[in-house]
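#structure-requests
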Amino acid sequence: MSPARLLDEHPDLPDTWLVTGVAGFIGSHLLETLLRAGRRVVGLDNFSTGKKENLADVEARVGPGAWAGFRLIEGDLRSREACDAAVRGVDVVLHQAALNSVPRSLAHPGEVLEVNTIGSVTLFGAAAGAGVPRVVYASSSSVYGDVTTALRREPVLGEPMSPYAVSKRAMEQLAAVTQAHSGVAMTGLRYFNVFGPRQNPDGPYSAVIPRWIRALLAAESPVIHGDGTQSRDFTPIDNVVRANLLAATRPSGGHRALNVGTGHGTSLTTLFELLRTRVAEVTGRPETARIGAATAPPRAGDVASALADLELAERELGYRPVVGLDEGLRETVAHFAGASGTHHSVETRR
């Protein structure tokens, strides 16, 4: 999202922001957008999953003038001292820090629950104590659990299917309690399968799109878990950035947890076909479009299909997706092709 467009939409954008998880995928995109818009940003990160390379990339993109508006606090979300230092003097908190991934939470449930719940309530308490008027926090579509219908509507929640889902459900409840007892305006955003440049493609807990792009760039077969009919609402990062800014400027009201997606489902098989076509185009290697996928058993804790109902988010925030799947995939493939040194000729939107 360009800063000019951002300021056109939000001319009264607050001056000073805290972004937790600022060195992560989503946090670094929020940082870049806010700095380009001339805002001051405090970042909190302990670099357990965030990368200093992401911050270096933002610095290179925004230039030294805008970068001077950024201050980094290297600290843990679970530390009240670090949270108190981070919230001091800020107008809005955008809380993105978390240990994500369903498989990670099944392997390390205690750590995921501690960071995502204890860490969040520590931050919420610090924000309330400092008189911060507004907190926007990252929830997840995983909170819908075993709901049987593909379309996810905010009031209808099933049983959680992973410790990660439990941690995000608890975060929403803690946010509601914080608002009731402190008056801090709390808004949760239930993200649906966010993807884009700077997303981590490495490791056992990486998301499917960067992992598959990395495999295709290396002329390897991506792995599809299950039969490939599972459907997801794959959401380009620009939509998530816009949703955060809308939530940060919404009129104060009761606590809300709202869907952020595109409202369109895409099967894993279709996603794979789209990605290999885009990688072939971007790299100028037509043979990539003939690479097949490998198969593996379904992953524990995964749901069959999920897409976001956006009616409530549109009514409450004025949210509509601004970037669709194909445009998001083109930009993301171009980013990873460039990062790997692979030749590409498709212009990105940046």
